[in-house]
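Protocol step 6 of 9: fold each sequence in the batch and record its structure tokens directly after the sequence line. For illustration, a two-sequence batch is reproduced in full.

Sequence one:
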Amino acid sequence: MVKGVLLLSGGIDSSTLLFYLIEKGYEVHTLTFNYGQRHLKEIKYAKKVIEYAKKIGRVTHRVVDISSIHDLIATGALTGNKAVPKTFYTEKTQMATIVPNRNMILLSIAVGYAIKIKAKEVFYAAHKSDYSIYPDCRKEFVKAIDSAVYLANLWTPVEIRAPFIDMTKAEIVSLGLKLGVPYHLTWSCYEGDERPCLSCGTCLERTEAFLLNNTRDPLLNEEEWLKAVRIYEAMKEEYEGKN
């Protein structure tokens, strides 16, 4: 069985990629990182996804505590003191959610782990919908870091893979619904409250993805889903009116 290392956040994209790799026959070794982010809710949900995934595939999971780097990268809304923007990802204000050099840092650690366990591939769930805001989710970055990893590890080559790089969030959800991904066990919201805020950029994107698939977000009850749709439609109308 081919081994692969996966960055698992506990959100829609990486959870779908986990089930995609299981379906492809991989033995998946997942890493979830505590890097001093705004809340640890995603780690809690990543553990739930893993417990579910273990029923159908060969999966391991490690939570890696690198929270000591927090002071070095504490800026913006996810690691710093800025408020979480309540806008669509297409807004420049969403740049406040960028964590400096995050994917470079996490992928570098994952590559070292892959070499240790003799895995040839490291996966992360960068996708097309993140292109405008997050430079480390673009094809150019994937190509560049893959080349750098090759040069840094000539004797033990590892490939950086981003299978969803040309897919939108809605297309990822469509795939996940076919794969049986337990989306009720995933968390996307940038806020760490008991329930999703429904109005931050990632909540809006999540609502849109399920709407485009004519499916209620299974994380939400009926009342919450109706509220999420109302918020999404109102904010979309406001956004389109400004542009």
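Sequence two, same batch, same settings:
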Amino acid sequence: MMRLPLFSFRAPRTLEEAARILHGEGPDAMPLAGGTDLLPNMKRRQQVPRTLLSLRGVEGLHQVHSVDSGYRLGACMTLSEIAGDSRFRNGATALAQAASQVATPHIRNMATLGGNLCLDTRCNYYDQSYEWRKSINFCMKKDGVTCWVAPSSPKCMAVSSTDTAPALMALGARVRLVSQSGEREIPLADLYNNDGMLYIRRKPDEILAEVLLDSLHDWRSTYWKLRRRGSFDFPILSVAAAAHFVRSGEVEDARIVIGSVASRPLVADDARRFLVGRALNSETIAEAAALAARIAKPLDNTDFDMSWRKKVTAEFVTYALRELRGDDVTAERTAITRCPST
């Protein structure tokens, strides 16, 4: 049995109180929302905070507010709440789809939006018990000096496995970060680094309080996820796509984000630029998919063969763009839930 290490527990009631406590406790404290990622990591001694700051009782972090310019989503909304909210359909469908595909219903009932956005990076050599990691002399991400995925690499190659981040990046989301010294609002895409250890730019004393979405009227979006089992598993490839069309059917604006192939979600800028001003015919979709797949360079850090993961990236972008075009892709979605043991 793996047991939690000893820690102090704080339970503030307001965001201001939480920020004050987090600042006072210093870098040895960590925010705790659903705990579905942090607590297992603590049991494996991957993360060992001395103080846990519970956000579950903080006022204002559990609701979604509709405003003239869009939505403000509290970071402690559960993934089940987001997946079941009818407001996250049509333009924001990608978010509902991403939330609904995280882990199992039991975990989604506990896991939060903010927690999923701040999800620790993962790796075959890191996501093991303490004893297993000790037997290989640990790894660069925790207690060691070598990245076993790429031993000559000067940085950790652990991969980003958040589902909601690619979806929200495709939707142009921003996040509000709050600390004792004030608050700041940044594009969600700017929250991440392509580094398995320093993967997030949230400061130790900052709390991710809200996700902000502008109006998505006349947008369409979708999220596609590849994993060995059609339930429970983390993604080993994800594609989020969103597009705004003019009346003639041409793409006025678009965003494609590739997840789980690097230490941060990757924005396919070349594919976006190519799509603008074009209709989503077969030729356009094929070229955009090829452009998007170029940025995916998966390594041997998750499930499945990395060459195969690279190959299917273009296919998943194709599925996503066909869905945005209005095609019936039910058969394709059903097929990928029965992924072969490649």
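Proceed to step 7 once all outputs are recorded. Observation for sequence two: The first helix runs from residue 15 to 25.
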